[in-house]
Design a protein that fits this description.
Distance between the termini: 5 Å
Radius of gyration: 18 Å
Number of helices: 6
Order of helices and strands: EEHEEEHEEEEHEEHHEEEHEEEE
Number of strands: 18
Length: 263
Amino acid sequence: MPAELHLVDAFTSSPFRGNVAGVCIPDGPPDAEWMQKVAAELKHSETAFLLPAKENWNLRWFTPAQEVELCGHATLAAAFVLWTTGRVPRDKAIAFETLSGTLTVRQSGDWISMDFPAEPATASGPVPGLGRALGIDPLYVARNRFDILAELPSADDVCSLEPDLNALAAIPARGIIVTAASDLPHFDFVSRFFAPAVGVTEDPVTGSAHCCLGPYWGEKLKKTDLDGFQCSARGGTVKITLQGDRVILGGHAVHISSGRLLV
């Protein structure tokens, strides 16, 4: 299945920062097995697959190991590619049909904003093996339908964390969000995201995790507009606006390469 293929760094305005996503636009309708093989070949946290529909675009996301229900950075990258290649005018919003419903993305000045579902977490009891896997006992643990959220004592604890990835992979969840209040005045919180259970050891910048982090820190800080920094090695910034059961995620993107997939 020949296809157009792009690489985009998302949630950053600098190349080789943020989170790189593959964006694949096949020449014809692909099957799930082919999409999974392409994602495994590319080895990025997620690869987005785009197919035009009657009015909107169908969008699916695959890690190197499996399809996922929600992904922020690859959605941002997919919208950026549609605007950059002229398939959609830059002043027009894009509606994606996904496993998480319709997601609308638009340009807001020099930012790209995405209307996503809020995914608040509820307090949970102790998660067996979590403290041992992280190497530190969390102050607070909660879960949503995807992930486990663990608040750590300090931003340095989050940013210097070296977890046992094999132990994390054994915990039944898509991924583990670790977070703490920021020690920098221009950010409200910091975070990192580990998802070895779905083939992603550490995701550099995770839009879908901020669907959980936004409601969590919004309630703690009594704010509806927040700025998060994901302090992975590549690092990236996510703006969040809370709107009831929705979150608006904002970020930048950098186009790294374009080409063709030949098989």
